[in-house]
Amino acid sequence: MEPFATLRGRAAPLMRANLDTDVIIRIERLTQLGRDELGKYAFEAIRYLESGRPNPAFTPGHPRFAGAPILIAADNFGCGSSREGAVWALQGMGFRCLITPGYGDIFRNNCFQNGVLPITLPADQVNELAVLAEQGREFHVDLNQCRIRVGDHQWLFEIDALRRQMLLEGLDEIALTLRGDEAALAWQDMDRKRRPWAWPDKVATR
Amino acid sequence: MSRTLFDKIWDAHVIDDLGEGWALLHIDRHLLHDLSGPPALQNLADRGLPVHNPELCFATPDHIVSSQPGRTGDTYEKGRRLWAGLHDGALANRIHLFDLGQPGQGIVHVMGPEMGVVLPGLSVVCGDSHTGTNGGVGALAFGIGSSEAVHVLATQTLRQRKPKRMRITFKGNPGPAITAKDMILHTLARLGASAGVGHAIEFAGPVVRGLDVEARLTLCNLATELGAKMSMVAPDETTFDYLRGRPFAPAGSAFDRAVADWRALVGDEDAVFDREEVLDLTGIAPTVTWGTSPDQAISIEERIPDPALEPDMGRREEYRAALEYMGLRAGDAILGTPVDWVFIGSCANSRLSDLRAAANIATGRQVAAGVTAWVVPGSEQVKRAAEEEGLDRVFMEAGFAWREPGCSMCVAANGEQVPPGARAVSTSNRNFVGRQGPGARTHLASPAMAVAAAIAGELTDVRRL
């Protein structure tokens, strides 16, 4: 996973509550395309008009936000389906950092798994940042300091230490967990005795 | 210290305390389907890693396969690759596979409890947000993304942060026409689509105790739409009776041993929840959604709300956009809204009791001209049991199509879509923009209300039929 430490650039505002992962990426794009091909289909239902031309109401699609690495959104962003492709689609649009008052739980986990930083701030602060984003101001995000800076102003955010370390170092969770596999195996041995009913006795046959 | 049911099950699965509320959790069951399963198995193979515990993994195709009568894995041609990926990946890794036409095939969250694969007190994951459905039998079940699924395949564990505890208690007397679907849509309207974010929900109270297991599964299924990754109902005699004799449930003395353990799965009486909600269901009416988020729900007797009255900016914009997408006007009655499609199915409402309730309304009546109506049973077992009771004939005589088990039009991943601009009443769980197909307009409702809409050709109150 690509490490995340600092980021600078514009932020695109998209202030509509409860934007679900079905809207972020349609299911058939996931079944028919590779993960690197999803960017142009992100938000397609609200990003394009029926004619296929850009929908002027979709702010992140405006030319002045082209290449913006930050997306600012309203509450409960990424609710709904667990599809990790929603994160890949956002990455395909160029986003590496999100700022919202809240996320769908699974979506938020998926962000961390892909080196995308999902920052949570109180709604009034997100609204302030959305205004600055609209003005085209440059944002500085610093994960070491857990700080967003725009001009002379700064906003501090919180993040779990484990998550922060994973992002900063770009760690692979699976390799990390497998290093402690002995503990898992010992737990399983204990559990087979404690809860024999939890272990199916039917084995799949080839 | 007093603990909730959720605390007890969580604690029982902690292999390692990682600090700050994080834990390395053991995963007792990993369910795989044809959408998220094949890429996860492929990723594992690419890493050169084996499946850690194949005996704890159970796979079935549901999302990408056609529901057309007589279908095979490649009836939906664009889904063939994923269906074959699940099939081959399961066989190569010695994972239990319930394939098309076999008992056990079906929507993964219907399969789990019905096969006895999911049991009280187990930790269960699946690359699917509606995995919390399995909490209806008292399991600690939650959805995960693809990366996490690979982690579970490789290690049989997950790194998770413990969520907060929330209890929703239903009291009062909801009346005989009110189903679990109405109760949970009502709850969504009251609490909102993010009420459960970061929480594990326990449904409690006398109303919940009186529900059968399938209704509890419906409740937990739509708790996902409250934003809760996991939700549960404490297991009781109703649960144990439901599980007895299921193919993968323990049998004989092992079952008795299990029940003895399961009886301990209750929260301490003085356990404290981080959030408590008590809803009085007396007098609630059948409930439907009007917008593009499952919390945009009203009783069938109400009028469509006005976005201008919403104080929050993001919410106001959400409501405005929802009305525009749905082609509805604030202030109009929802009753009498014309309907083009009706879909009865999905992990919310496709079990035998749902189909019985639907058939009960359909008996001796006819689907209105101009309405296309489908019944997609949740699983091969549900399908066979329904056919044994003659429910398929009831539906077909009334003008419904009777199809093969799977997710079908709930998520429209298999090409089965509601056409653009068409209005559907669906027993599923999501009315998102484009969910049932680009431009499709979805109203969520109970099976009885969906059949009533099919017959009337418009949204109607099933109690008036």
TrEMBL record, chain A:
E.C. code: 4.2.1.33
Coiled-coil annotated residue ranges, if any: none
The keyword Amino-acid biosynthesis is assigned to this record: yes
Keyword set, alphabetical order: Amino-acid biosynthesis, Branched-chain amino acid biosynthesis, Isomerase, Leucine biosynthesis, Lyase
Pfam families linked to this entry: Aconitase_C
Pathway this chain belongs to: Amino-acid biosynthesis; L-leucine biosynthesis; L-leucine from 3-methyl-2-oxobutanoate: step 2/4
Function field: Catalyzes the isomerization between 2-isopropylmalate and 3-isopropylmalate, via the formation of 2-isopropylmaleate.
Recorded family membership: Belongs to the LeuD family. LeuD type 1 subfamily.
Quaternary structure, from the entry: Heterodimer of LeuC and LeuD.
The protein, known as: 3-isopropylmalate dehydratase
Automatic annotation (TrEMBL), chain B:
Span of domain Aconitase/3-isopropylmalate dehydratase large subunit alpha/beta/alpha: 7-457
Assembly information from the UniProt record: Heterodimer of LeuC and LeuD.
TM ranges: none
InterPro entries xref list: 3-IsopropMal_deHydase_lsu (IPR004430), Acnase/IPM_dHydase_lsu_aba_1/3 (IPR015931), Acoase/IPM_deHydtase_lsu_aba (IPR001030), Aconitase_4Fe-4S_BS (IPR018136), Aconitase_4Fe-4S_dom (IPR036008), IPM_dehydratase_rel_enz (IPR050067)
Reaction(s) the record says it catalyses: (2R,3S)-3-isopropylmalate = (2S)-2-isopropylmalate
Organism name: Alloalcanivorax balearicus MACL04
Class of this enzyme: lyase
EC numbers, comma separated: 4.2.1.33
PROSITE patterns linked: ACONITASE_2
Function noted in UniProt: Catalyzes the isomerization between 2-isopropylmalate and 3-isopropylmalate, via the formation of 2-isopropylmaleate.
Keyword Secreted: no
Pathway field: Amino-acid biosynthesis; L-leucine biosynthesis; L-leucine from 3-methyl-2-oxobutanoate: step 2/4
Entry keyword annotation includes Isomerase: yes
Single GO MF descriptor: isomerase activity
Name of this protein: 3-isopropylmalate dehydratase
Keyword annotations: 4Fe-4S, Amino-acid biosynthesis, Branched-chain amino acid biosynthesis, Iron, Iron-sulfur, Isomerase, Leucine biosynthesis, Lyase, Metal-binding
Stored SUPFAM superfamilies: Aconitase iron-sulfur domain
NCBIfam families: leuC, PRK05478.1, PRK12466.1
